[in-house]
UniProtKB/TrEMBL annotation:
<feature type="domain" description="Nuclear condensin complex subunit 3 C-terminal">
    <location>
        <begin position="560"/>
        <end position="790"/>
    </location>
</feature>
<dbReference type="InterPro" id="IPR016024">
    <property type="entry name" value="ARM-type_fold"/>
</dbReference>
<dbReference type="InterPro" id="IPR025977">
    <property type="entry name" value="Cnd3_C"/>
</dbReference>
<dbReference type="InterPro" id="IPR011989">
    <property type="entry name" value="ARM-like"/>
</dbReference>
<keyword id="KW-0226">DNA condensation</keyword>
<dbReference type="GO" id="GO:0007076">
    <property type="term" value="P:mitotic chromosome condensation"/>
</dbReference>
<keyword id="KW-0158">Chromosome</keyword>
<dbReference type="Pfam" id="PF12719">
    <property type="entry name" value="Cnd3"/>
</dbReference>
<dbReference type="GO" id="GO:0000793">
    <property type="term" value="C:condensed chromosome"/>
</dbReference>
<dbReference type="GO" id="GO:0051301">
    <property type="term" value="P:cell division"/>
</dbReference>
<dbReference type="GO" id="GO:0000796">
    <property type="term" value="C:condensin complex"/>
</dbReference>
<protein>
    <submittedName>
        <fullName>Condensin complex subunit 3</fullName>
    </submittedName>
</protein>
<keyword id="KW-0131">Cell cycle</keyword>
<keyword id="KW-0132">Cell division</keyword>
<keyword id="KW-0498">Mitosis</keyword>
<comment type="similarity">
    <text>Belongs to the CND3 (condensin subunit 3) family.</text>
</comment>
<dbReference type="InterPro" id="IPR027165">
    <property type="entry name" value="CND3"/>
</dbReference>
Length: 790
């Protein structure tokens, strides 16, 4: 019998050669794994001739393991990014996987010939012993001082843990504990590899849940974008983790944001598991993202995964997005039109579709028509003629007036979409134009008209009208008809015009919350009044009830008329001097309602008067003192309206023009500076926006005002006023770098402002909102840098 060659002798030659070969390419890893497995098997099965020891087999295996580990140790200190080291790690993982696979085949063959056995008898295999030895060695370096060693160890374990067979329970527990510790390693690269390793340990057991909790904490708080990305891709998807994954759609890193949409498209079998609110947020964040790659990922998710879950049916998809209350459904639909022309070609808007409109159907046809509004031929194919569309509007409006409160919302939405479609029609057909005009007039006269519909109706009326004067005349006729019968009733509710505009008196005389009416039906045949009267005290006599009903009727009619006037003025561009009929409307409706006791009527009256002033400069000069009075003495909502009107007038006609023409012109800047110290955040922000516009347009040049803006920008108390901060963040760089004169003005206030800011910083708590002095100085220097002048 020939003498068996001792394979131990050749280990120091064969194994290094295999490690050398596996660094060249991954294509030879399988071949080298087979070769190395044969060497391992020879070492395990070799018996010396004298059989000196019963542990000879284990000693031979240990010799193989020692030589293997000696060669593996050479790549552990190598820095991250070395391709050769990465290939060695992949080879080690492929070798362990191949060994486990072969041992599993051997066990299966033995099991076929054995009927009674216990699982534990077959756990101790060559591959399991080798894996245990390798992991025990790697765990010695998992807390090494060298960050490269820790990274390579975690990387190797991450590869090994997925292909392991059965290992010792104590070793497995130790492995879980050590890997969990590495999730908190100071090096981001090590944490990434620890995440990859721990992802295999997630589960329903206590430790698996603990790992998931750690992952959630890392998703929310880890400063490294790479670590958060690793968690996004490897965290287990379930109801608990889904909410935290969705939050990463607002991650500061665009790659992470894109990864969220890719993971959701892959992991979620049906997007209905997301709540409607979550769908709305996800689409809104993705489709409006500033990064084009994130937007493309969201569009891909929507146009492939989500539309497939809806059976490639756009109507079914829209039903799951709740288009009535959605702010992003239109953008989502347009993205599908661009990405899936095959689905667009399947759309069919026949007579049956128009006769049985739903909220989703009306939304779909409206967006599709706006998408193709440049293609007149396509619009002619889709849209019915003017007369038929008028019929559909009337039909669904009648349904809305007769429906219950729940159905009324959807029907109101359908009517609103039909109004938007009416804006796209060609009104060359005189018969259809007259039919539409008659219908719109009838609907405006109705007591059930919605505020949201008024604006659309007024816009359609303007398109139908011959010119602006004809448009104004027809709208005034409608308003006059609406107001018939209330002129005598509204006199008691007015203040006298000579009362020095004392608008602050009796501000809350009426007990009814008028502001809630602005968001609902302007009048419902006085049902609200009847309900309120039925719940009132039984001691109220009939005359008081009748008087209160009349007052309510006057308020509702005036509210409706003011809404119509506001919409009309917003669509008007003709000077009031060329349209004298507007003066009568102003004197009969707008001014009397400004004198009203009711806050909501005063607010709308000021708004309408402001729009009139934008169309007529002498009128603006004449009434500017009124706006200033309202700003000083009005309630907060009236102050906001007045300040907005004042700012618009200054921008429209010029700051110097208004100051020189107005009786109290020298008080304007003082009043605006008072607003900069107002407690109301909205007033505060509107004043900053107005002053910023004046300074950018070079109508105002005042270093004291500029200094006040700088102080506001760095004031910790304005940190919560996002509108103010956003405005000033844009204003200062543009103002300083747009001209040398502006930069010189900033340089003049540099030192006084910096000194004052430093004094304030000493007296405030050093919280997160307080800007450090060094950052303040750096920002001011950057604004005054002459080399950045455009």
């Amino acid at each position: 019998m020939p003498v068996q060659e001792n394979p131990i002798v050749t280990l120091s030659t064969i194994i290094p050669q295999i490690f050398q070969d596996c660094q060249k390419s991954t294509s030879n890893h399988r071949t080298n794994a087979i070769t190395l497995r044969k060497v391992q098997m020879k070492c395990s099965s070799y018996r010396s001739s004298n059989n000196e020891s019963s542990n000879n087999q284990l000693d031979n295996e240990q010799a193989f393991n020692t030589e293997f580990i000696r060669n593996l140790n050479k790549i552990l200190p190598v820095k991250k990014g070395q391709t050769n080291s990465e290939r060695v790690i992949k080879f080690v993982a492929s070798f362990v996987a191949f060994s486990c696979e072969k041992d599993k085949e051997l066990l299966n063959n033995q099991n076929d010939n054995t009927t009674d056995y216990e699982d534990d008898d077959y756990e101790d295999t060559l591959s399991s012993r080798f894996a245990e030895c390798l992991i025990q060695h790697l765990l010695k370096g998992i807390e090494a001082k060298d960050k490269n060693v820790r990274l390579r160890v975690c990387h190797l374990i991450a590869h090994l843990i997925g292909c392991l067979g059965s290992i010792d329970d104590d070793l497995y527990e130790r492995l879980k504990v050590e890997l969990t510790k590495r999730l908190l390693d100071k090096e981001a690269g090590v944490r990434v590899k620890a995440v990859l390793a721990c992802s295999k340990l997630q589960g329903d057991d206590d430790h698996g849940k603990y790992v998931i909790e750690k992952f959630i904490g890392m998703l929310r708080n880890d400063p490294s974008a790479e670590v958060r990305r690793a968690v996004i891709y490897n965290i287990e998807y379930n109801e608990e983790t889904l909410a935290y994954i969705l939050q990463r759609a607002r991650d500061v890193d665009p790659i992470n944001r894109r990864g969220v949409f890719m993971k959701i498209a892959e992991e979620i079998n049906d997007f209905r598991v997301l709540s409607i609110e979550d769908r709305e947020k996800l689409l809104s964040w993705g489709l409006t993202d500033r990064d084009s790659h994130v937007k493309k990922a969201c569009v891909r998710m929507l146009s492939t995964s989500w539309i497939q879950h809806a059976n490639d049916n756009l109507l079914e998809l829209l039903e799951r997005l709740d288009v009535v209350g959605s702010n992003i459904a239109q953008e989502a639909l347009i993205s599908i039109f661009n990405a899936r022309p095959d689905i667009v070609q399947m759309l069919n808007f026949d007579d049956i579709f128009w006769e049985n409109l739903t909220a989703e159907g009306s939304f779909l046809v409206r967006v599709f028509c706006e998408y193709n509004k440049e293609d007149e031929g396509k619009l002619d194919e889709i849209l019915p003629e003017v007369t038929r569309l008028a019929f559909y509007i009337q039909k669904y409006n009648n349904f809305m007036n007769q429906a219950s409160d729940e159905e009324q919302v959807n029907l109101a939405f359908i009517v609103g979409q039909l109004f938007l479609l009416a804006k796209l029609l060609d009104y060359g057909d005189e018969v259809g134009r007259r039919k539409m005009c008659s219908l719109l007039r009838e609907m405006l006269m109705s007591s059930n008209i919605l505020e949201s519909h008024i604006e659309s109706i007024v816009e359609i009326e303007k398109k139908i009208s011959i010119n602006e004067r004809d448009f104004t005349r027809s709208m005034i006729e409608i308003i006059t008809d609406i107001r018939e019968g209330i002129e005598d009733d509204e006199a008691p509710s007015r203040l006298t015009y000579q009362d020095d505009y004392d608008l602050s008196a009796n501000m809350s005389r009426l007990s009814i919350n008028i502001s809630s009416m602005k968001m609902s039906v302007l009048s419902t045949d006085l049902k609200q009044t009847e309900r309120r009267v039925s719940n009132s005290s039984t001691s109220m006599d009939d005359s008081n009830i009748l008087q209160e009903d009349n007052e309510m009727k006057v308020i509702l009619v005036n509210l409706k008329c003011l809404h119509i006037i506001r919409c009309m003025l917003e669509k008007n561009s003709e000077s009031l001097r060329d349209n004298p009929s507007m003066y009568g409307l102003m004197n009969e409706i707008i001014i009397p309602n400004i004198q009203s006791h009711e806050p909501v009527l005063r607010e709308l009256g000021i708004h309408c008067l402001g729009l009139c002033c934008i169309l007529d400069q002498p009128l603006a000069v004449e009434n500017y003192n009124l706006f200033m009075h309202c700003l000083r003495h009005g309630h907060p909502e009236l102050q906001i309206k007045s300040l907005m009107v004042m700012s618009d007038i200054l921008i429209a006609y010029g700051y110097s023009t208004i100051v020189s023409s107005t009786r109290q012109g020298n008080e304007i800047m003082g009043l605006l500076q008072e607003c900069l110290k107002n407690e109301n955040e909205q007033v505060h922000a509107i004043a900053v926006v107005g002053i910023s516009k004046l300074m950018l347009s070079k109508m105002l040049r005042d270093k004291y005002v500029l200094k006040e803006l700088v102080l506001l920008y760095f004031d910790s108390d304005t940190a919560s006023n996002l509108r103010l901060r956003q405005c000033l963040s844009y204003f200062f760089p543009v103002f300083c770098h747009s001209s040398f004169e502006n930069q010189t003005l900033m340089q003049e206030i540099f030192l006084p402002t910096l000194i004052e800011l430093l004094k304030k910083y000493k007296n405030v708590d050093k919280n997160d909102n307080a800007v450090p002095p060094l950052q303040i100085a750096q920002q001011l220097v950057d604004w005054t840098d002459p080399f950045k002048v455009v």
